[in-house]
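Its record is quoted verbatim for completeness.
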Amino acid sequence: KLKLDWLAARYDHCMTNAYRTEYQVTDSGVTLRAKVGIAPISLQKFLDLDVCWTVSNSGAVTLALHAERNTVFPELPRFGLRLFLPKEMARVSYFGMGPMESYCDKHHAASHDYFSSTIWQQHEDYIRPQENGSHYDCDYVQLDGAGIKLTAVGAKPFCFNASHYTQEELTEKAHNYELHPCDSTVLCLDYAQNGIGSASCGPRLAEQYRLDDASFDFSIRLIPEKA
């Protein structure tokens, strides 16, 4: 199974190291640039990143990065940005594939449109907890609650997942009734995810559904505002 390859690569025990950082203050805001590596504990790096964060005077934050992947490692399960937001931000609206969960190799039952729901309604209650509730090919997503809104807009279509469960919680538990929500709304903004197929009960994923790019670029803009 592909999961065993991911565990052998220790993707679930990764550390991020910044080797160089610099910043620039302008009339419009602040720009922070960093050279970053991501590596599993006790193994070599599998990603080198050139990262640029730009914080405008309005409070909007733009992330733009270029990634170079060590192709000795297996394809990535996913790549993106994970945010822990106040749990009161419990409504989500988006323009993308929905209303059910959708992935690069699992979206033909979905349609591309505007959708809105609660965070709890995003959860797919599988007997064995696992990745669920993502939405593919999104132009934007907005979370709101407690008088706060956060909108994420991609330079290119992206995937997102909004949940009250962490990925660690879904991985560690064997049954759905064992799950415990965290004290946050967990928002994942993904450049991409590997397809759902994993050769566990069929052939390996077709190449177009694998997240195995040798290099890629990812950009997302976060816009906070009062509701």
Helices lie at 2-8, 119-122, 167-172. The mean pLDDT is 95. The CA atoms of residues 100 and 109 lie 8 Å apart.
